[in-house]
Specification:
mainly alpha
Length: about 120
């Protein structure tokens, strides 16, 4: 059942993004930003973590999970260092993913020739 719910929840998040682009004519950048902000709001309200526990990778893989990670890092760091932790916490918890994206993107750019 874990795989079933991961597929359903992850698929629903993707369907929401596709509807935003097809029906509301939002650009991919606007859609991505909206999903990140939605994940941030749900994380701040404490609703995203129960969704991740229920759906597993179906909720932790989409871009909305990035917003949840940002708010989680900011809140954890704010508890220990105060208001400055809101700014530093978002970088601490997401730095490995962002670093990996930059490194692998750079490696792909070296290996493959872009069309242009």
């Amino acid at each position: 059942m874990t795989f079933f719910w991961a597929f359903i929840i992850g698929g629903l998040i993707c369907v929401i993004g596709q509807i935003m682009m097809d029906v509301f004519k939002l650009t991919p950048a606007h859609t991505m930003s909206t999903l990140v902000v939605t994940g941030t709001i749900l994380g701040g309200l404490g609703w995203y973590d129960p969704l991740v526990k229920f759906a597993g990778a179906g909720a932790s893989t989409p871009i909305s999970s990035f917003g949840n990670s940002l708010v989680k890092g900011a809140l954890m760091e704010a508890e220990t260092t105060g208001i400055i932790g809101v700014l530093t916490g978002i970088f601490e918890i997401t730095s490995s993913g962002i670093s990996a994206a930059i490194i692998f993107g750079f490696m792909a750019a070296i290996i493959f020739k872009p069309k242009g």
